[in-house]
Protein 1
Amino acid sequence: MPSKIPFRIFVAILFLLGVGSIAQRHYSGEIPWLPGETYSTWMIEAKVEFTAQGDAVNASFATPSTQSNFTVLNQTAASPGYGLSFVDDRAQWTIRNADGKQDLYYKVNVLTNDIPLDVVNEQDVSIHKTTWLPPYDIAAEQLVSSAMEKSADAFSYSRELLKLLSGDDLGQNAKLMLQQNSKTNLFVALLNEANIPALLVKGLYLEDGRRQQQLQPFVLVIGDDESRLIDVKLGKSADAKNLLLWEQNGEPTLDLIGGSNSRVSFSIIQQTQPVMQVLKEKADDTDLSNFSIYSLPLEEQALFKGILLIPLGVMIVVMMRILIGLRTSGTFMPVLIAMAFVQTSLATGLIGFTLIVGIGLVIRSYLSRLNLLLVSRISVVIITVIAIICLFSVLSYKIGLTEGLKITFFPMIILSWTIERMSILWEEEGAKEVFVQGGGSLFVAVLVYLTISNELLRYWAFNFLGLQLIIMSIILMLGTYTGYRLLELRRFKDMQGD
Amino acid sequence: MMTFSFLKEFAQPRKLKQQGILGMNQRNNMYISRYNPRKLFPLVDNKLKTKEIAEQANVSTPELIGVVDSQHKVKSVDKMIAGLSGFVIKPAKGSGGKGILVITKVEGGRYYKPSGSECSMDDIERHCSNILAGLFSLGGGIDVAVVEALIVFDDSFEGYSFEGVPDVRVIVFKGIPMMAMMRLSTSMSDGKANLHQGAVGVGINITTGEALNAVQYDEMVTHHPDTQKELALLKVPHWEEVIRLAAQCYDISGLGYLGADVVLDRDHGPMLLELNARPGLAIQIANGMGLLPRLQQIEAANTDSMDLDQRLAYCKQHFG
């Protein structure tokens, strides 16, 4: 007797792989457990206005990229007459000739993630020391040393520095320096003076329905282990909630050649989108780790929506046969009938199926007297089935029952074989067996239909491919089940020995 | 109470296990797939091949009259059966008794089934065409029609069978006959000896050939439903020969778990009708006992090196 241990390990591995894949999809792929959930997305529109000078225009506009608290779903730009390209997180508009007032639009959809903003500095920020002219050099030096004295690291230094540069009663040094420089620029320069790398970034607080918004400057202070975002205006760490960093490289928001009087403004709206919509857009971000059916073209996706449900149906058939012991006509025919039910809706499907098979059986009983060869007889049955379907469709349409048209969704070859098998069954084993097996098939088909039309299971089958592995491991385990079938308990009820 | 009466329709799995009842899943998983190598199935699924290997081993089978193996030969069936007073046409790869046409009387170009209903030459030719097209066959593949001599059943079965030939199903495990049952056709089974079609199964003591219990449609019966003959009085003649023949089937087929269907011809004695690699479970009800205890007993015993006589002796000694 071969050991069952390797087999059980194999099944367990399959099962765990399935569970793992589902967990991975949920936790790192951020696919929710339930289909009904909605995600909030933001649509941000940037309007770039400027006056063109009648010559070639090249406008390079910073665009946001995915960060920990927001995922960029898609971006579009509208700008009649302009050539457009997206290069290195920037949108570039170009035109040979432009004159007068120009409006360029850039639109981006971002998805709110549940993770707080975590500024990770990936680039090498160089320290740029400013050469101050007297008397600014002394003022700068004193500010630096004064903040240095009271601080221990980069962040406490920047906190002390901000204290010196803010408030109502500024010191002389600070007053002097702020005459020449903006507070933000001075802050960055003095950080660099103390050998602390810092970067000027621009961000946007997302609030529903805001218009005419401006980007706000922030300073990214880079410490030894972490980086912090400082809101210089408020003099403290930036409130990271709903903050979308628009430009993170220390570059200008708009770089315009051939235009003047430029102005950039933002409008923001919040949208609630169903999860599926969002997932679809997320999957456009194609890479191999993002293994999802959503990366396929829409048509193939629709195809897979059906195919991925078949294992569920098959599992029910396996259960019905191995655990219950139901007899069906054709092992997997119930699955095919159920797939047809999905398209026709249950009531129409049941009535249609019974009608077609019933009428088919009557016609088939005449054919059996004609002494035809099997292949030609089945062919005639196929044609008859088509005729019945045509007739029903036209009749039901004429009397105003458009539901009847759905009958065409039934696979005709399957119907014909069903009629042929039922008919032989009738001749050989009598009407009773026809009702037992036909009823069994329909019963299982309805069960399969109820399963595969369940919204949650459909969603799971399509979004968590690991479910297929779990189904496979269950079917493998059922394949080794040696206990009694439910109907055998009834069959052998007189054998209990009491 | 409603729920209580519903539960009474079902046996408790624990009690069935105690009785050693073999279930379908266990049969498939632990006996058929383990002891019956797949490559041997064609030998028993094709009655022509079974006949061939049986003849090589001098196991007698009903006489072969002819084979219709192509559509143009269908027209020559009338020559094949000319002068016979009865014959049987069956598909070589049929299952569950499907597609077997029995003609017991021929009179003036008219052919009569056991039930008395008549059929014409056209009907017979159509039946052959259907067989060739695979209508009755496993998997629906193309098939051939086998024409065999009619079996005249032994006089001792008079009154035990209705319009059909009774046969003995013997379950042979690893070459040892371990349980047997007689299958009697009824009006419900339309002359066929298949239990699911309504034939009566009578459990037979494997060592003596005497009747034990009887069932029809999985329910106990005491008398034949058509002839009202008392089934307990049934005793199969030539029993030693019957189980010897069944045990030989292990040697000729190589199947570890098989059902041998044996008929008793008045003139030729026990003959092998067909072999079954997936014998049914109703034999347990007919015998009033489960298959498992004996199966496990044989599995535990060292029977691999036994020859035919030793295996028969083992059966006598342990299953008496």
Protein 2
Amino acid sequence: MAGSNWQRGKPQDTVDMAHRIRRHVVEMTSAGKSSHVGSCLSIADICAVLYGAVLNVDPENPTHPDRDRLILSKGHAGAAIYASLAERGFMPRQMLRQHYQNGSILSGHVSHKGVPGVELSTGSLGHGLGVGVGLAKAAKVRDASHRVFVLLSDGECDEGSNWEAILFAGHHRLDNLVAIIDYNKIQSLAPVKETLDLEPFADKWRAFGWATIEADGHDHDALTAAFAEADGIEHKPTVVICHTTKGNGVSFMENTVLWHYRTPQGEEFDNAICELTELAAK
Amino acid sequence: MRDAFIAELTKLAAADTDRVLITGDLGFGVLTKFWETYPDQFINAGVAEQNMTAIACGMALEGFKCYTYSIANFTTLRCLEHIRNDVCYHDADVTVVSVGGGFSYGQLGVSHFATEDIAILRAIPNMKVIAPTDPWEAAELTAQMAAVPGPKYLRLDKGKAGLPEKRDDVVFGKGRTIADGRDITLLATGAILSEALEASERLRETGYSVRVVALHTLKPVDEDIIVTAARETGGLVTVEEHTICGGLGSIVAEVCMKHGVMPGFLKFVGLDDVFPTVVGDQDYLRAAYGLNADAVVAAALKALGHEGRTPSKQVGGAP
């Protein structure tokens, strides 16, 4: 289906790729004095597996009609997508330094304008899945074989628009659509369970006609297997519920609401980089 | 207008299989033929306008030309952020179609009054705004808009201006001078042009020379026709079935100030910044809220300083 540059990443590279994504997002959110580092670290492994081993994408031809589409619906984790795209070769790594800076096109919430590889600009939660449903429906009408992935946060599932999209995708049996939930169980002010409990979460998706797969969102083998399994499911869309840890990889950022907002500066930045360096060396 | 739009869209769909109509579970009887004839180009998204708009965006990003369809505010305000962030920011080829502009569904209550849509939709970058004045004009504009890429808003009215069909006179983005005159210009958008036309007759009977300008396209608006009217005639009165906050009147004021032209007077006939408290048919509500021909005549005569003033000798225009 593809030109010479069309290739999946090698699965054995994804762990290293995730280390680099983590380092990028800590550096980016520090340089930009920006929020959401915890949200980015939460999906670093998911992004590495997707861009490194799952998505059929071609940095040399980012709008290839046969490419797989990935929408980051939790747009506040834009730094993680920019870092992933840079690692996958869609932009020079040094461009990441522009993130959040005056005059930059790399906005805090992911934007497609001028950024090859970004399918959809998001930032207001509850938009990505509906558009992803449109992409998947279009692929069905065109009898195209590519897949559509939409990465959502757990708190984002409070948005009613998602459930409109979930209902539609189940009804229309969009088996080329994969929703991925970053289920780190912490949302903006408090744990999900204390805000609007999503449980029984998988049951809800099943009730709407979806296949469900649950996986450790930091286990690359499990993630790779989950996306492979999703590929084989017919007549239903699939949700991969990834159990994750907000802030994963930096001990003092893990499982805390604080690092949804706080930017790593000074000693905290040094300590975060130090921890990530040790993690990568293991 | 609705039937004229659907008939034209059916022709477009026949010629281009990438044209897809997505309804929010409305259009009983009206969309049946389209649905049956082009089932692969018809989607009922259910009562889910946010998702309807998002799907339309997604399909448009893949090369389809999508039309979202529902009543009054359901295709617009209900899903406004999806129109802004998804459709307009991505410059997706989606035509948002609202059936029931203004007081078209006058008996159904405030939920079904589309009286802020023009102001809100025109504020969004990339969006084009069209409010036809007659069914045949709606059909012609539907055909012309098919060649205009990107987001579009089509406001369809239950009423009609009642002018004879002259498709050659209709150009997307251009106003139409219905009648020429020099004492005053009445500018109207949508089917309420009928009230402006009736008012123009009565003003002529009083002895005034009245220009009537119909503006079916509000964005991009025909700036020349507005500026020329401001320069050549004694003053302007705008007529719209819409709030006076941000609609046609505001557009005319903005255009005049942008070009440094001060009309002799500028009066807005439209819905005051209030929610209606009663229901009724379109004619009743126009009268009740000061939007009908009587209100236009009254506003015009007051602006013209009718008492003690000698109207100019009428030139041209009067049918």
Protein 3
Amino acid sequence: MQKTDSRNEALSVRKTGQKESFLQTVREIYSYRQMIVAFVRRELRGRYKGSFLGFLWTFLNPLLQLCVYSIVFSTILKSGIEKYYLFLFVALIPWIFFSSSVLGGAASIIAQKDMVKKIYFPREVLPISTVTTNFVNMLLCFIVVFAVVILSGIKLNFLALLCLIPVWIVEYILALGMAFLTSAVTVYFRDMEHILGIVMMAWQYLTPVLYSYDIIPPQYRLIFDLNPMTPIISAYRDILYESKVPDLKSLISATVMGLVVLVIGWITFSKLKRRFAEEL
Amino acid sequence: MEVRNCDENEYSIEVEDVYKHYRIYKDKGSQLKEKLLFWSRNKYTENNVLKGISLKVKKGEAVGFVGHNGCGKSTLLKLLSRISYPDKGIITTRGRISGLIELGAGFHPDMTGRENIYTNASIYGLCKKEIDRRLDRIIEFSGLGEFIDAPVRTYSSGMYMRLGFSVAINVDADILLIDEILAVGDGEFQAKCLNALKEIKSRGTTIVIVSHSLNQIEEICERSYWIQNGEICMEGEPREVHKAYLEATVH
């Protein structure tokens, strides 16, 4: 029979019992790209399905959060930072993406355990879908961010805005690496989900989201510099709040740290995925 | 059976001396507290499910696995589909594998049948273009008619299965793995499935069936394996193997 589908010959002959190469895995994930698309779409559409305002919640949610923060920080907790609501907002949206990717990623394999136990597909698809869903959600939230930035009278710098693209990519890489790591470990060790809740809260306070990098006492700066989220959050703030091109050196260090996390996550995932179906 | 321009020596599936064990935890604690406090309890016994299985399935051939519960036939199927991996030995498969194991995987109740076809088919590794090309065929086979644009939550369980089966069978896999799936649905649907399988087989798809329904295996397969305690006990013409198997069961 003539197969009409163009299939890679190397991909179709499979030997289990031997280690699969990195390239094979990547190629296989690529051939399952439609699954990622379908899962992201299902998740994005399913999230607010049945609610009266539906997809509008994607925009309403960050806007309402912004309202709460601006009320609290302009009337009760006066921070002394000019336009604090904006200062916080441009950092909070990217932080929420990161945090929900790590937490959602941790649950991503367990949530689909019936499928993992019964059907073969590259397991990487699940954390990739979760992170991508949150990423698309963040990009949609950025429509609100841009609107708020413009309305608050900040003059955006075009060159700085272009830098958003690499910052987004670096944050995606970091979030994906963390999601690989947490999703695989959680299968074997269920407490991970609960531990992560508190870890992510602590991580948020150890990242200059609510405050500025400048107020960190110099003796503690090393801890913050080793945190890959510090340069990422600072870059968002540089671009959207200060409207200047972010510091290249810190962006490069964020990229390197993000890639290191991705490699660690990938290797851990590859080692642990072989027994997912038995552990679930 | 007609052999279609494929090399006689080409095997779809080659299983070479495969071993598999599962860990049976006496009292499994996967929480930190339990792991620390009762680490001695985490000891497990090893259950050897497969002990040196070797077999070859030619392209376009249909084989069945029979045996008692726990003999390892479903485990073997899981290894073939790469849901789990062997401890020892090598499994070589050639071509795209699809399984009639979990029908309707990934269905979202609020989405329409048509939308769910895309989600479900994508789990079998089809890209959008490939699904587009199969869409009409899938809808036609399912016999759902205008219901295809209604949300899946409005479907009866029979309709749900029909849609799932229709997608799975239209993946055009080179190897189709089936685990007891023909036990579901009414008589009419079962007959339809059986006919569909025969048609798929005539197109050169390799089929592996695990079933307690010996009749179904006899109807489709050329060869049967009787698996007992993780080893192949007998192999050959289905009727003969099943006869021996039934006799051994009775005594």
Protein 4
Amino acid sequence: MDFTLSEEQKQLRREIIQFSREYLNDENCMDFFSREMWEEISQLGIHGVIVSEEYGGMNESFLTGAIMIEALGYGCKNNGFVFVVNNHIWVGLNLIYLYGSDLLKEKYLRNMVEGKYIGSIAISEADSGSDAFSMETTAQEKDDCYILNGSKMFISNGSIADVFVVFAKVMVDNLAQITGFVVEKAFDGVKCGQDIEKMGLNSCPMCEVTFNNVKVPKENVLGTVGGGKSLITSALEWERCYEFACHVGAMQRVMEECIRYADERRQFGKAIGENQAVSHKIADMRIKIEMSRLMLYKIACLKDKKRNAYVETSIFKVFVSESYIQVCRDALQIYGAYGYTKEYGIERELRDAIACSIYSGTNEILRNTIYDMSKISVL
Amino acid sequence: MKYIFVIADPNFKENSKACTELVSKAYELTNNRDAKVVTILFGDISEEDICEVVKYGSHKVIVCNCKENGGYRYYSNIVNVLCSREQPELVIFPGTIVGKGIASTVATKFGGGLTAECIDIKVDGKERYCFSRAAMNSSMIAQIVCNEDCIQMCTVKLNVFQKTGYQLELGEPEIEYFDCADISENENVLNLIKREKVEQKEQVDLENKQLIFGIGRGVSKEDIDKIKVISKFYNGEYGTTRYLVEEGIMKKNRQVGQSGINVCPKLYIAFGISGASQHMVGLKNTGKIVAVNSDKNAPIFKYADYGIIADSHEIIDCLYKKVIGDII
Amino acid sequence: MINVVVCVKVVSANLIGRKEKVDGIYGLNPYDMYALNKVIELKKKVPCKITCLCMGKEDVKDVLVHCKAMGVDEAILLSDRLFSGSDTYATTYTLALAIKKLNYDLIVCGCEAVDGETGQVPYSLAQRLELTCIPNVEDIDTIMDQEIQVRYEDGEYMNTVAGKLPLVIIFKNFTTKTGKINLLKLKRAQSSPIIVWSAKDIEAEPDLLGQVGSKTKVCHAVNISNKKREISYIEGSSSEVSNWLEKVIQEN
């Protein structure tokens, strides 16, 4: 296995990092979603990273895509904005690209690749988070459409999204079958609540989205009726891989800042980095980053070979989320009192990081999954 | 007999000082050598103008009765004819926009060696001219010589040579009136549609000020206004770094350093400037540098005489209060 | 379709405040980057084909790929051992020969390069091609029916002029930003080779190239970057410090 990047991959990485640093790191836009920044990144064209050229995409392999997304997480300090972009790509347009009919792709894909429509996924409800499949949103078949009723909670990109991938229960032969639908915000009856104030990731708006007798045309069924569960599983796999690819980049960024700080900050006549209590923390950061990266490349290669990466993505997500939080926590400690102030941005990194042990499946649930999958392969 | 040509900018009225500075330098170069200075003037030139030029060392003056605003190619054609005729060993052009255009065009046509933006001209032992100019972001001074077989030419950076200030007794100057009737204009003459005075062109004289305040990234907008007041009070000026110009917070005519202005005040007080080399290059001839920065590892402390590790805001605030107190 | 040729120079990354390790050894001369951005902006209003022309070593290709990712249609690298050591005279001889092989309506240049800093190439090039050159251009207003209207500055005035193409224009500003790219264009640029022309390809006479064809040469160069100074730190409260500052100001 050769882990060296090709010249093209190196250049893609470099260009994305340069672009992010110059155009996506506006200090004034750290706490809200900036339309201007969205326009910039849409011009950059990263949304279409794995989409075919037919729909305006770059048709990259999953491995190159992972390298590029990691570069975005490294170059762009605005973690909330990166979160918006990832939601839009991996659980928004990607689902339509991989599982949508040609009709659906014609309707929505190009505009999403060009950033004209922003995508969002709506699975969770107020009463069904980890227990996603106990959702209560319903879709009743009527004439040539489905009538959607219910409300989804903690929907990232909610208030800025144009297109939702919504999951609801359809009664088929008296059995409730989870089905995915593509729902436009413009449809009658779709309503977004107020943006929820959160601990971090402030550039990513999050809200409740309610569906009140929304007429969804039958052609907007994503995949097949009753195929929702596997769609959700698949969506989470993508999210766990690529959202967390960004976090690998973010960890690298935070580690580099710690190295610089540990070199500059002097106490007792020497740089604090000369104390093992500090340098070892940084060494641990490096260990976590390298291990994460290896797992990322492995998962991306599996996906390129069209193989299942269910347990790998679960392991990756647990490992990266806990590493990322620890890296930011250690960074805060290294920066000391300065780290605690708003000015240095370290406290923001920690506040942004903490959510990652919750979204994309809580680490507790994922540990269950890993255990179950390990049991199967051993027993 | 060798000739040194000094070409005046076609807009003599606005550039007479530059012209006389070049004439002075040219005269210096004829010292103890068998060479004469010939100054070429364009357009409507008065007796007084000619006297000015002669006073500083021009042995001969050629006045070209040419069109006004003929465009640099037109003037190049005139200079070409005169150079062909006299075969000067050196032609000096002013570093104005038109001057550079004429110089480059003439040099290319003649295959002459052209050194641009000179800051010094010397004659070396072998009777060849040696030109000094800055390069590499103004971090180097290069000495340039021309090949043996070509006319030597140069454009001179503005404000680099001083007039010698003494009157010369050169006897009766030789004056020639050159008729430009036969000089061709090139086919593509530009059509002037509109000419507007640029509104907020602030005349800033950073190059000649003795006291300059430097405003860097670490200074807030309110504090910039305070520094404006402070600098005015002490009869100084304020300059800035590339970052603030690129962000549109300050104008380019105040940018010190790379591709901005080079300053040489007696005292430069830098607030919130990190000290990147591109900026510092503009300060290399400064007397004393005082740096105020809250980051004790900022590179500027390597180049400063006095360092103050503190929040710029606080210091600016104190100075401002003093100044206001004194005004009131 | 207007054919625009932008002459660009690639310079060392540390001359433009970049870190080699992160951004690569080379970057585009900031003045040329500004000019290139302006031409790419123009393309949104007026259909044009943008060709970038660059004289340099083979290893500057990455920078030209970047230019194509920004929206340049074609990039040509003039690369030959014989070109090295060129002064302005030899450089413009080379560039002019290359340009004559292309269709051109408008030639655009930045006003100087941060390493050479002479600012002579555009005029000299214009002379070789027998074209007029408009310096200090602020913006291109329109291009219609082979006529271009630009605004340029001279001293205190902003002049709006119109001229017939072909013409050479020089933009006066610079930018140190890296230029906005599109990833799909980058990918396409990576897979389509940069056109490389040697001295033979442009039918150049070796005697007129490089050091041999130059009219000037550098005989000596001295580094004059900042002298190191001995620093003394002033300590104290803000008011004490500002008192000291006031004294220093008044002393000088």
